## 1
Amino acid sequence: MNDNELNKNKNENSNTDNMAHETPNEDVLTNMNINEDSQENMGALVEPNDEKEQKLKAELTEQKEKYLRLVAEFDNYKRRTAKENLELKLTANKEVIQSLLEVLDDMDRASKQLETAKDINLIREGVTLVFDKMRRIMQQKGLRRMETGKEEFNPDLHEAITEIAVATDDLAGKIFDVIDPGYYLNDKLIRYAKVIVGKVRL
């Protein structure tokens, strides 16, 4: 082999090496494509997560605002209810008191007449009218007097003040006298009748 052929082979080998370095093979290109796809997929995954986080933060903020509004409304309700209850306690008897003012006026007029009146029958008539008016107003407000006779003592209705000895067993436990009558308000017992009860003599 002469010198020209050796130089030709060297040049061919050199060109082949340069081409190997300059041109990427298919595996390299494939790997590059995979890396680019992976980066795109990573970006696609990150963006939805950011959007989801922002959405959750917005929902949390909305729920927090709703909670704060609810707390404020409840505080206002408590203050309003407390104020209404106080006003109700202060004015619960207003209507009854206003009705009784008429009786109070009649009592004042009767008191003045007592200073100069000499006719006892006229005084008795005036006092009776005042009493009747008082009873009528109380009945209109739902007050009803308990009718207590010689029935059996009932602890649900009566309060025994004292006992009196009786001669026979059939009178034991019976009511003999009423010290203070009992009263109902709209059919609800508001005062027990104070009574004297019979007791068998030993």
## 2
Amino acid sequence: MIPLINLGQERAFNPAGALQWLSYAFVAAGWVLATTIAAGAARVFNRR
């Protein structure tokens, strides 16, 4: 996909300082949550 127009999204969301670290923490928490849910689902399906 080739971006043909600029919608201004990069300028609208550009965290800096503490907000940047908070966004990193949210990404890491999402990965941990997704991994935990996948492991739980695999364990439930493995029992049957």
## 3
Amino acid sequence: MFDRFGFHLRKFVPLMAIAAGLTFVSHSAIAQSPSPTPKANPAPVNTRSLTVTQLLQQASSAGQFTTLAAAIKAAGVGNALQKGQKVTIFAPTDAAFAALPAGTVEKLVKPANRALLARILAYHVVPGELTSKQLPNGNLKTLGGGISLDITPGRVIVNDAKVVQADLLASNGVIHAIDRILLPREIRQQLGSLK
């Protein structure tokens, strides 16, 4: 089954896992060439019975979105999503984290950088549930600032990140997996001076 952008809707359960603790969303992505769509296992038949947090835990246990799960834990935002609070999460894959400059992830998960990491995660979260059919072309407000969406048939670009899997539905929101980390300009400038 495919959605209007041509994404296979029964793939990439691990992506849903990312949404679990993300209460934060990033604003702009690192400008890099798009990476190929990752392979994934079929999603459970009824993912709406799981919260985004439960999906993230399952994906992390299966070896998917391990970096995102570690970042959520290090930032202390794992329990930030409350029942009844609908969110849309643009969830970076492990490959997206690996594309950051060498040593960046290790520095971000240090206790001294916890607040900065939480701001980055907030930049990836949009209040309310927006499926691929509801995503607007243009600007969208996240918990960490504004992002830009460029939607054409078969493609969704969020800042400079490509949606590699859309519409991973959970009981309290939806996850769209992306191939780049979204970073607001002011945070991008801070990454070079992390210790």
## 4
Amino acid sequence: MSPNLINQVQNGGAVVGDTIKVRMQNGLERIFILVSQQDAAPEKGMISNISPIGKALSGCQAGEKRQYSAGNNTFEMEVLEIVKPAAA
């Protein structure tokens, strides 16, 4: 496990498998599940950790504001809640 990933997990930051509720710049609330690239299904809210939004949310914590770029535009979202998957 990389030192960066260990730090994110120890600090409660969002990692693959987490469900993240955000408020988008336009005020709408969205729920994303952070997944690996091969599991991505954006139409179901399952976003890749290497997508622009996924990169912005990786390591985030509730209460933070994060930015991501799409084309020539930069957008901001506020992290409202992070739900970790139940332990098996």
